[in-house]
Design brief:
Elements (H helix, E strand, L loop, with lengths): L1 H7 L7 H5 L11 H5 L7 H15 L5 H20 L9 H18 L4 H24 L3 H28 L27 H21 L3 H20 L3 H22 L5 H25 L1 H8 L8 H19 L9 H7 L16 H37 L5 H18 L8 H15 L7 H13 L1
C-alpha cells in the first residue's frame, strides 16, 4: 500500500535524468556570464521578492488588468533570471504536475470550438503558473519568505480593518447579495476594497491561516500580539462578509489546522492525549459552533439557508447553472472547451436556462472539468494531492529538526483546504487577488521539496529491527 501511495504521489520523483536530456532545460544558464558582470542581478532574489510583494500590496486596490500587466513584468524578469542562472533551479513533483496541467490546457485550446477565446484564457493561466514557478524559486530563502509573508499579513490587516469599519458604520450594498424574500434581505455584507463579500472572504483565508502560524514563528511579545490582532480582525471581517462559502471554508481551514497541529506536537503528548486530544477538541469546537448558531439569530438564519435547497434564491441560481454546466461537460467530457471565462461565456449561453446567465460555473471543480475536461480535472486533483502529501512530509521533517518553518507549511495547507472548500460552491478562486495567493501557497510548499530516499528508508528500517 505504501509503495502504491508513493508512486501516486511521486514521492521518489527524481528529475535529473529527464532534465539533463531536455533541450529546453539546457537554455537555463545560457547568459550566466552576463549575469556575473551585472550589478543589479547580484540582488536578483531580493528584487524578485520585491516584485512579488508589489502584487500582494496593490492587488486589493487596482484593477485586474493592472495586476495582469504586473504579472507579465514578473514573467519577463523570471525569463531573465532563468537564462542567466549560474545554478540550475529547483524542480519538484509539484512543478511537473503544474507543467502537465498547462500542457492539457494547451491541448484544450487547440481542440476548443472557440479557440481565440480559449487562447486568452491560456495566456492568463500561463501568467499564474509562471508566478508559481517564480515564487517557488524566491521562497527557498527563509529570510525572503518571512518578508513576503509579512507583506501578505500586513495588507491583509488593512483590508480586514476596512471591512470591520464597514460593518460598524454601514456601507452601501452594491448588489442583491441576500435573498430579497428573506428576513436578512437588508442585512449588511461587507466587501472592503474588493467589491464583493464572497471574494473578500476567500481573500482573507490565507491571512487568517498565516496569522495563526505567525504567532508560533515570530519571536517577541509585540510580533505575537500583532499576529493575534491580524487573525482576530480578519476572522471577524470574514464573518461580517456573510459568505456561507467563506464560513464553510473557515471550518475546513480550522479542521485542517488542528489535524496538522496534532502531527506537529504529537511527539510531546502522552499516550492518553495522543488518543483523545483531537476528539475532545473537535467535540468542544463543534459544541461551541452549534451553540453560536442557536443563540445568534442572524447567524442561524444565514446557516439554515444552506439547507433550504431551491427555496433560497442563491441556491436556486447555482443549481440551475450547475445543471447547464453538467450538460456542457457531457458534450465535451475529455478535454473541455478550453480555459478562461471568455470561452465559458461563449459556450454557456447555448446551454443555460432562461434568466440564469452566469460568468462561471460557480464551482472550481466543475469549472476545471468544463475548461479541460475530465483529463484536466484529474490532473488538477492529482496536483492538489501531491502538494498536500509533499507538505505533510516536509512538516514531519521540519518538526524532527525543530524548525519553526514547518508552521508556514501548516498554514499553507490549511489555507488551501479552506480555499478549495469555498471553491466547491464558488469561483472567486479565479480572481487574481485570490489566485495569486493560491499559487503562492503552493509555491511555499514546493520551495521546500526534498526528494525521498529509498536507501535511507531501508537503512532506517534495518536499524529499527536491530533495536
Amino acid at each position: 500500500m505504501n509503495s502504491t501511495w508513493d508512486l501516486v504521489t511521486l514521492s521518489y520523483f527524481s528529475p535529473k535524468t529527464w532534465l539533463n536530456a531536455s533541450y529546453v532545460y539546457r537554455l537555463v544558464g545560457l547568459l550566466s556570464t552576463w549575469r556575473e558582470s551585472s550589478f543589479l542581478l547580484q540582488w536578483s532574489e531580493a528584487i524578485g521578492a520585491l516584485l512579488i510583494s508589489f502584487v500582494f500590496i496593490f492587488s486589493p486596490f487596482i484593477t485586474t488588468g493592472l495586476i495582469g500587466v504586473w504579472l507579465i513584468a514578473i514573467m519577463g524578469y523570471w525569463g531573465i533570471l532563468t537564462l542567466s542562472d549560474t545554478a540550475k533551479p529547483g524542480f519538484s513533483p509539484i512543478h511537473l504536475l503544474v507543467f502537465v496541467y498547462w500542457g492539457i490546457s494547451a491541448v484544450a485550446v487547440a481542440l476548443s470550438p472557440v479557440k481565440m477565446a480559449a487562447f486568452s484564457g491560456l495566456v492568463k493561466l500561463t501568467l499564474y503558473l509562471v508566478f508559481f514557478v517564480f515564487c517557488a524559486r524566491i521562497l527557498r530563502s527563509p529570510r525572503l519568505t518571512n518578508c513576503l509573508i509579512t507583506a501578505v499579513l500586513g495588507i491583509g490587516l488593512v483590508v480586514g480593518c476596512y471591512g470591520v469599519r464597514q460593518q460598524i458604520f454601514g456601507v452601501e450594498q452594491l448588489a442583491t447579495w441576500n435573498d430579497p424574500t428573506s428576513e436578512l434581505a437588508g442585512a449588511t455584507r461587507v466587501y472592503s476594497y474588493l467589491g464583493n463579500p464572497n471574494l473578500l472572504s476567500a481573500y482573507l483565508l490565507p491571512s487568517i491561516a498565516l496569522g495563526i502560524a505567525a504567532f508560533f514563528v515570530w519571536r517577541g511579545l509585540f510580533p505575537k500580539l500583532l499576529a493575534i490582532t491580524i487573525t482576530l480582525v480578519n476572522t471577524a471581517c470574514l464573518y461580517f462578509t456573510g459568505s456561507r462559502g467563506g464560513w464553510i471554508a473557515m471550518v475546513a481551514l480550522m479542521a485542517t489546522f488542528l489535524l496538522l497541529f496534532f502531527v506537529w506536537f504529537k511527539n510531546n503528548l502522552s499516550p492518553f492525549w495522543r488518543k483523545w486530544l483531537l476528539p475532545l477538541v473537535f467535540a468542544v469546537l463543534g459544541g461551541l459552533m452549534f451553540a453560536a448558531i442557536l443563540s445568534v439569530d442572524s447567524l442561524r438564519m444565514r446557516v439554515m439557508t444552506i439547507f433550504m435547497g431551491r427555496e433560497d434564491s442563491s441556491n436556486n441560481f447555482r443549481m440551475n447553472v450547475w445543471m447547464a454546466v453538467l450538460d456542457m461537460i457531457r458534450d465535451r467530457p475529455l478535454i473541455g472547451i478550453g480555459p478562461g471565462n471568455n470561452a465559458f461565456n461563449k459556450i454557456y449561453p447555448l446551454y443555460m436556462s432562461p434568466k440564469y446567465s452566469a460568468l462561471s460555473s460557480y464551482s472550481v471543480l466543475l469549472e476545471t472539468a468544463v475548461e479541460t475536461g475530465l483529463i484536466g480535472l484529474s490532473i488538477f486533483i492529482w496536483l492538489i494531492v501531491v502538494t498536500v502529501n509533499q507538505g505533510v512530509r516536509q512538516i514531519q521533517q521540519l518538526r524532527d529538526q525543530n524548525n519553526p518553518y514547518g508552521m508556514w507549511l501548516i498554514a499553507a495547507i490549511a489555507a488551501m483546504a479552506g480555499l478549495m472548500a469555498q471553491g466547491l460552491f464558488d469561483t472567486v478562486w479565479y480572481r487574481p487577488q485570490v489566485n495569486t495567493l493560491w499559487w503562492f501557497l503552493v509555491a511555499l510548499i514546493a520551495s521546500q521539496y526534498q526528494p525521498k530516499s529509498k536507501v535511507k528508508e531501508v537503512k532506517e528500517e534495518k536499524l529499527e529491527v536491530r533495536i
